[in-house]
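step 3/5: co-fold with NA7
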Amino acid sequence: MSVASERSEAVEETTPASVDVVVVGAGFSGLYAIHRMRKAGFDVLCFEAGDGVGGTWYWNRYPGARVDIESVQYSYAFDEDLQQDWKWPELFSPQGDLEDYINHVADRFDLRRSIRFNARVDSVVFDEEERRWQVGTEAGHRVRAKYVIAATGPLDATNVPSFPGIDTFEGELHHTSQWPREGVDLRGKRVGVIGTGSTGVQVVPEVAKVAGHLHVFQRTPAYTVPAHNRALDPDYEREWKENYAQRREMMRHHPNALVLPMTQHGSVFDHTPEERLAILEEAWRSRSGLLFFFLFNDVLTDIRANEVVAEWFRGKIREIVKDPEVAELLCPTTYPLGSKRLSIDSGYYDTFNRDNVTLVDVRRDPIVELTPKGIRTEEAEYDLDVLILATGFDAMTGSLLRLNVVGAGGVPLREKWSGTPWNYLGLMVSGFPNMFLVHGPGSPSVLAQMVTQSEYQIDWIADLLSHMEQEGLETVDTTTEAERTWCAEVTELANGTLFPLADSWQKGANIEGKPQSYMIWVGGFDAFADRCDQVAAAGYDGFVLKP
Ligand code: NA7
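step 4/5: write tokens
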């Protein structure tokens, strides 16, 4: 547990009956929203379900939790002193360091006084006569607000599959995103992990180090590359700090909001097999995560190019994993490389060479039920002391829908989004005036670095609100036409890539009964931000502002 997270979190103050802006969620986006709205002169109040700040980095405290973007990039740019002062110990920060950072930010900018902790928002209702939102929490807060900013995070609503018998399991059961702050003693225990997405890939090697025996229940194997995490090199840090302003500007103009210091090698097919091999092998030894994709420009758009790299990738798995049957099971074959998020890991494949680790293929032998003792599949039973669910999230829409938002005309967001999650620029939904989404469906979301995106979107919202106040405007809404055009563009762009080919959370395929459509704008953060700038410059084209 980080030192910062032990601090007393809530600064109790009387909650006002009415404010200008309610922010939902005190993660990276929510905290910046508080700061930015205050700076623009608004009264702001934030409700946070947890008892501390950090959002994703507050909830996901499972062993091995770590960001997959370099911390010098995955951090705030809004305050030069902050980015100069802060020292990241590692290249890719573990959860505890991210939590320390975000607590520091909350203190440094005196944000806690605007936050009510342990306050899960459970109703957000628009009062048409008053043109105000009425926001309620499970803890009993009731506040009226002119504006609502839903900074709820695209990966926040936990997905706990409805395994029959789940309540009968007598061991300890933990979802990775609700990991107890005091930790879980796994030493010598019989542990099961269900799920092998980015989270499973991080948690499995750590659990294997301490468990008596670990069973990994895999339905779909992941593609994951070595993180090459290390202590942050002082020269690298100095270089970043000397050039921060310029580099942040480069991030604003990059499709993934990143600085990627690497050579791009054109098409996969521009090279002989030997050259390609040399490029890939060098990358495997020295690169990680997203960087890996930018080696060639057609991996995410041409299935043949993708398959060439995917097959090389499978060769890597076969090289590392000693048991050929286990290696084959770990080889992804059912979706293109990168169409689900590429994970980065520290020794994931090698973990399956350990004597205390067993891979169970629950695609071939599905889980039938949980029993008091463990898991029963069609063919076997596994006795477990601890079961870890790394089963992901009801992504993109789940965290917004559970706010129980009811817009103009009494229309629930749930009804509006019963098919497509309609939105314009990922920022607004028509019929929900003065309510803004951050990282909403229709935004570049997880396909670009999130902190820079948060800052961009919140700055954009703040400018709009300032404009409204200056002009004496009361409401802003978008139109069904604008959202139809935008969502058609989101779909069209995605269809030009391989992303929709995977049954991923990015299109809602991981949740039973959830309507499926690819929800992320794949056109790049730079193009997205350019578009938002143009919309604002054109007098908020596609939005309707009323006095
Ligand atoms: P993911 O990527 O949604 O992974 C969840 C994993 O859990 C995945 O392997 C699923 O298999 C598996 N799963 C889910 N439900 C079941 C059931 N019922 N039975 C067996 N296995 C199941 O979530 P993560 O938390 O790993 O990562 C989310 C994002 O966080 C990640 O993309 C990064 O952006 C950061 P499936 O693939 O559905 O067959």
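step 5/5: annotate
The chain has two domains: 3-157+395-546, 166-389.
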